[in-house]
Amino acid sequence: MPKTFWFSMEKVWNFCIFFQVRPLYAGFDNMRLSLNESVLLWPMPAHVTRGKSILALASGFAFGQADGQHISATLTQAFSRYIDIIYEQHSLFQVVSSGLDIPVLEKLLVSLDSSTEELEFEVDESYTLKVPDPSNPNIASLQAATVYGALHGLETFSQLVDYDYSSRSLQIARTPWIIEDYPRFPYRGLLIDTSRHYQPVESIKRVIDSMSFAKLNVLHWHIVDEEAFPIEIPSYPGLWNGAYSYKERYNIEDASEIVEYARARGIHVMPELDVPGHAASWGLGYPQLWPSPQCNEPLDVSKEFTFDVIDGILKDFKKIFPFKFAHLGGDEVDTSCWKNSPVIESWLTSHNLTAQDAYASFVIRAQEIAMKHGFEPVNWEETFNIFPSQLSKQTVVHNWYQSGTCPRAVKAGLRCIMSDQGTWYLDHLDVPWDKFYLTEPHLDITDAAEQELVIGGEVCMWGETVDASDILQTIWPRAAAAAERLWSPLSMTEQGISEETLRRLQTFRCLLNRRGIPAAPVLSFWGTYVFGRVAPSEPGSCFSQ
Amino acid sequence: MPKTFWFSMEKVWNFCIFFQVRPLYAGFDNMRLSLNESVLLWPMPAHVTRGKSILALASGFAFGQADGQHISATLTQAFSRYIDIIYEQHSLFQVVSSGLDIPVLEKLLVSLDSSTEELEFEVDESYTLKVPDPSNPNIASLQAATVYGALHGLETFSQLVDYDYSSRSLQIARTPWIIEDYPRFPYRGLLIDTSRHYQPVESIKRVIDSMSFAKLNVLHWHIVDEEAFPIEIPSYPGLWNGAYSYKERYNIEDASEIVEYARARGIHVMPELDVPGHAASWGLGYPQLWPSPQCNEPLDVSKEFTFDVIDGILKDFKKIFPFKFAHLGGDEVDTSCWKNSPVIESWLTSHNLTAQDAYASFVIRAQEIAMKHGFEPVNWEETFNIFPSQLSKQTVVHNWYQSGTCPRAVKAGLRCIMSDQGTWYLDHLDVPWDKFYLTEPHLDITDAAEQELVIGGEVCMWGETVDASDILQTIWPRAAAAAERLWSPLSMTEQGISEETLRRLQTFRCLLNRRGIPAAPVLSFWGTYVFGRVAPSEPGSCFSQ
Predict the structure, then answer these.
(1) With a cut of 0.90, is the ipTM above it?
(2) Residues with Cβ within 8 Å of residue A222, at least 6 apart in sequence
(3) pLDDT tens digit string along A171-196?
(4) Which end is more exposed in chain A, N or C (fewer Cβ atoms within 10 Å of the end residue's Cβ)?
């Protein structure tokens, strides 16, 4: 156990002692007061000012678009979702605000600068929320460059609304609020892995819902791996014979539905095809892709058929996944199956290639195929570590293995995504929320132009021990800590964690629970350590666990 | 570890070896064939016959009521739910059955003998499902005495429908099906505990959804306990000061919404007021209920105010909970706080009562109050163990502590509910699914009239380590094993478990996952033991874990 881990544990433990349930929550008025003193939003917006007034939502409270605007279908759907969220999270039947001696909010009106509904990478996600708008005390205004900024504004608005039990009304405390907000990084990702365990479509949709609450915006879909190939590829229909079972499969309609479901929530879906390693399951449909029946990966580098299949998959992917990037893997390639196959060995010799050369040429060729189909390639860091100069200049290097990769990649002029396994791998259950929070994608990168090349970061939910029964509680709340690091200004997150951070994250976790997302306790102890995905160890309030 | 546990583990382990993923699922056609050979329904219906044909659901497939029937609002809601379930669990966009060379099913028509929508205890839950109806090859018929039988029939129908990936159609294999079905016990319960941890309304609704899939029909809501008093009691509004926090509360609208949500799914809600022990949280609002500030339970037996409060709560409960029974607790009463309070001690003396007498008289008086408000009382077994002859003849004894309680209770002419903590406590994570399955409520009761007095059984999800993040995976799939014991004929369940049982339960667990219920793996190992609520230990298929 590294010493830094012990230190961070000590801090968390101190918080825990501080946050004993009863002392804190004895006397609701005190609690409400102190809750009102904090800005309980997650992730924290870039700029917040607020006042000392209070507003109740009117009985017919509604979302709408400002007069004369092109009606956005995406926004109309979102209005309906957020009406449900605002009403359901407080479990009330009716908004009874008549008779209250406080002003009411009748509407939230959205104005968009652009009518485009296309979700492009680096789309403007900024928004300005005023509750109420200075021009009208009964109307809140949400202004955004695009509908995708407006979605974030609706989420922020929903987090301002509280249920008042005595009046049975929905209220917003500390008005007027003026919130100007925008993300720090354009790429704020979460990886899911549907090869080690199949995730039903319903389960993936819940992941997407929850990502939108934390303002994450890229679902990196590690669809296939050596264990299973669950997705339909019309060009090579035998491939999904590699699924675990007949029922554990995605047809192209499923995949398209997931992409559209995500888009409607401002989330890109990046497909991954991890080649040439991590691909043994391909051969259950096409055994000729295996170096030999006994030695099943990496994919046979010597056959044109291998690249035909990759071409077919990426051609089919392009019809399903509009995202700019495709992930081509390239990690953990052990070439011994190539060297042990007489046919491949003689092919290597006749082409005057070492196995390492062949690995590089395989990756480069896959990149060329991806680019031909209109994708920019993302590759795991081994490709950069081993043959940096051969990679396409369009490559995005995906760090995972070690610290220091992004600094080297951006110095070489390539873009980078940070996913340091020591702190941003969600399957590492021993990494507590504060380590996720304290991870900085710009670490050791001081040059502004180089910093620009770090497009963001991603937390990775590898699927070895994660199926539909535990994926959400393994992801949350720890992913939220990374989400704030990726969204909020560095000036805010570099302050580190405090009681206020913990309290806000606990509040966000309880919000997820109310919305049906089974986020685990923030302070979930395994013995005396805070772990991910641990049941609460004793009775207590959601807000203190 | 008792020897029987080892034996059951050995059996499960053998199954596990038998059910290795790849060998079993290599070749989908074989798998489909063998799946078709089994009746993959859970819980198993009383009588099933089937054929060798196949039907595809027509594009416009719909549920409806037979001509001339009173339109049931409950059924209309259920039709909409089951259309969603049938379509969503197979993740398809459209039902494309044209061009298939197999007959199509256009409708399922429901006939009800009674138009009542009232959910009474022992309502007729039987149904007969014919797919297709012998009179029309394109229509399935579902006949039931009441809408609550029809709901079970819809659930069974939904479990017959499978998605065919090649034709993109929904199909039912092995038609014609004729299923005649009815429950073995009228009381098939699940306890949830919202005192040790608050469960958001959304979380309770998911529990109710999942109960309906397993044909459980009583949600025993252990609302309050010593840790927290989360529910609003209009007669004594200070009581919910005992909630963990301002936000962790149910107002009466929430509670009523839960009751109606459950009713629409054929599920009763039984409230519990656990007196005189397990009630310390009451005093956060009314400290005079405590024997002393230092000694907070049992409730002060010497004050009339105590019984006024119980009266107020039960009066308010009657407006919310229409169920015939209210649970009055009565377990684990340690009377030392009474004996240590000079005021109570002198009250006992002046009334010539031992503390034990006072405990009995407290329980009896609570029973009288409950009966005055129209409830029949349920009490935990200590009340029967300690003062059997003083209990009302209307009492239902709720076994939990030891085996043999129900045999004694029914011999004494009282009704009984079986919840043996050794096998039906879901918080006992070391109890695997097969122990749940093999638990028999009629154990050691041979007289038919006495057997009749066992109204059923209940699995208990105590909340010490269960909040919204882990309740569903702690309940499922183990609760399903008990659900089959309580629903299916004894002639079937007394056969014990077999590979077929395990396979069916795994299939049901995967069905729950597809429907968004995060049921844990059936064979979830903790080391070499099968435990409840454990993450899958390695990659694999849902159907084999």
Answers:
(1) yes
(2) A191, A192, A193, A194, A195, A272, A274, A327, A462, A463
(3) 999 999 999 999 999 999 999 999 99
(4) N
